[in-house]
Design a protein that fits this description.
Putative cytochrome P450 YjiB, 12 strands, alpha+beta, 48% helix, globular, heme binding, Cytochrome p450, oxidoreductase, 395 residues, monooxygenase activity, oxidoreductase activity, acting on paired donors, with incorporation or reduction of molecular oxygen
C-alpha cells in the first residue's frame, strides 16, 4: 500500500485536507485497518484499539531508536520520546515534576494575563491574524517564563523550535543557538537559583544524581518544544473547527461551562499532528513476532499509529463525524497514550481553555476571512494552519 498523494500535499487548504483525511482513514478502518506502507517500510494501524495497544505495550512495541535525522539515521543518545523503561521512567519523573499539577495551577493567573494582553493589542483593530498575533506567541511566552527565560526572546525560540521539529535546513543552526543559549541560562541559574522550572531541574536528582550539563540542555529542548508546538497548532485548529461549525461556537457562548469538553473535542476533531508516511519518525519497533488484527508483524519491523483514524473510530465514538463540544466521554488519542502520553497536555489544555473562555469577552461576530487562501503549516510532523485572518467586532 502507498499513501494517497494528497497526504503529502501541503498546498491543499487545511480544512479541505482534513476532510479528505477523515474520509480516507474511514475507508482504511473499514477495508484495511492494518496495512504495510511500502513508502517507508512501516506497518500502519487505523483501529482505535490497535492504536492504544501499540502505544501501551512498550515491551512488545519499543520506542528505542525511533527518531531519525535528515539522513534517516537514528540518533545515538536518544531523547525521552525514544526511551523504554526503566530509563524512560527515571527521566519522565523529572519532566512530571516540571509540569506538576501545582506548577500548572500556579501558572493560571499568568496565562490569563498573557491572553488578555495579546487580545488587548488587537481588539481595537477589528481584525487580526490569529496565528501571528495569538497562537504563535502565547505558548512560547508561557513556557519561556516557566523556564525562567526572558519572554522577549519568544520570536527566536519559536523560530528555532520550528526549525528543529520540522527538520529544516536551519535545524543544525537552531540546535547550536539553543545549546549556546541554554548553556548560558544554566550557568546563570546555577549562580542565582529561583523558583522557576529550570532551577528545579538543576536541583533535581535522578537515581541519586543531578543531571549533568548535557542532560539539562536536552531537558530544556524537550520542555520548550513540548510546551509550545501542540498548543500553537490546536489554537489554530480551534478556529478551523468553529469556522466549520459556527453553531457550536454559538452554543459555547450560551453554555460557557462547556469550555473543558470543547477543548477535548477540538483536540479529537483536528489533531495537531500529521498523519502520513514519515521517514524521520517511527512510532514503535516490534521486539518480537506479533499479530495485530489479522496481520503478522515480524520482530524488528516498524509500526506507526494513525491517531486521527482512532479519533474517528465509530466503534469508540458515537456520531464520530460530528463536532460536538459537549461530547463525553472523549478518550481521543491526540496526546498519545501510555508512557509517552504528551507531558505538556495539562499546560496545553489550560492555555486553550483560557483562550476559549476569554475570546467572547473581547470579540463578537468573529469571522474567518476566506478571501485570503488558508495554508497548512509547512511541516512533515505537525498539522495546522499557517495563517488565519479574522475579522470581528469588539465588545
Amino acid at each position: 500500500m502507498k499513501f494517497p498523494a494528497f497526504v503529502n500535499d501541503l498546498s491543499i487548504p487545511p480544512q479541505q485536507y482534513h476532510h479528505q483525511l477523515r474520509n480516507w482513514t474511514s475507508e482504511m478502518r473499514a477495508n484495511d485497518p492494518v496495512v504495510y506502507n511500502e513508502e517507508n517500510n512501516t506497518w500502519v494501524v487505523f483501529h482505535y484499539d490497535d492504536v492504544v495497544r501499540v502505544q501501551s505495550d512498550f515491551a512488545t512495541f519499543s520506542s528505542e531508536h525511533t527518531v531519525k535525522d535528515n539522513q534517516g539515521v537514528s540518533s545515538e543518545n536518544g531523547s525521552i520520546i525514544e526511551m523504554d523503561p526503566p530509563r524512560h521512567r527515571a527521566m519522565r519523573s523529572l519532566i512530571t515534576q516540571a509540569f506538576s499539577a501545582r506548577t500548572i495551577n500556579d501558572m493560571a493567573p499568568r496565562i490569563q494575563s498573557i491572553v488578555d494582553e495579546l487580545f488587548q493589542k488587537v481588539v481595537a483593530h477589528g481584525q487580526m491574524d490569529w496565528m501571528t498575533e495569538l497562537a504563535n506567541p502565547l505558548p512560547v511566552i508561557v513556557i519561556a517564563e516557566m523556564l525562567g527565560l526572558p519572554r522577549d526572546k519568544w520570536p527566536e525560540f519559536k523560530q528555532w523550535t520550528d526549525a528543529i521539529i520540522n527538520k529544516t535546513s536551519e535545524a543544525g543552526y537552531a540546535q547550536e543557538q539553543f545549546a549556546n543559549y541554554f548553556s548560558q541560562a544554566i550557568e546563570e541559574h546555577h549562580k542565582h537559583p529561583g523558583t522557576d522550572v529550570l532551577s528545579r531541574l538543576i536541583a533535581a536528582e535522578v537515581d541519586g544524581k543531578h543531571l549533568d550539563h548535557e542532560g539539562l540542555v536536552n531537558f530544556c529542548f524537550t520542555l520548550l518544544i513540548a510546551g509550545n508546538i501542540t498548543t500553537t497548532n490546536v489554537l489554530g485548529n480551534m478556529i478551523l473547527c468553529f469556522d466549520e461549525h459556527p453553531d457550536q461556537l454559538a452554543r459555547l457562548s450560551e453554555q460557557p461551562e462547556l469550555a473543558s469538553t470543547a477543548v477535548e473535542e477540538i483536540l479529537r476533531y483536528i489533531p495537531p499532528f500529521r498523519s502520513g508516511p514519515n521517514d524521520l519518525l517511527v512510532g514503535r519497533i516490534a521486539t518480537t513476532d506479533v499479530m495485530i488484527g489479522e496481520k503478522q508483524i515480524h520482530k524488528g519491523e516498524s509500526i506507526e499509529v494513525s491517531r486521527i483514524s482512532a479519533n474517528f473510530d465509530e466503534q469508540q465514538f458515537t456520531d464520530a463525524q460530528q463536532f460536538d463540544i459537549a461530547r463525553t466521554p472523549n478518550r481521543h488519542q491526540s496526546f498519545g497514550h501510555g508512557i509517552h502520553f504528551c507531558v505538556g497536555a495539562p499546560l496545553a489544555r489550560l492555555e486553550i481553555k483560557t483562550t476559549l473562555e476569554t475570546l467572547p469577552r473581547y470579540f463578537r461576530e468573529i469571522q474567518l476571512n476566506h478571501d485570503q487562501p488558508l495554508k497548512q503549516v509547512e511541516s512533515r510532523l505537525i498539522f495546522g494552519p499557517r495563517n488565519l485572518p479574522l475579522s470581528f467586532q469588539a465588545r
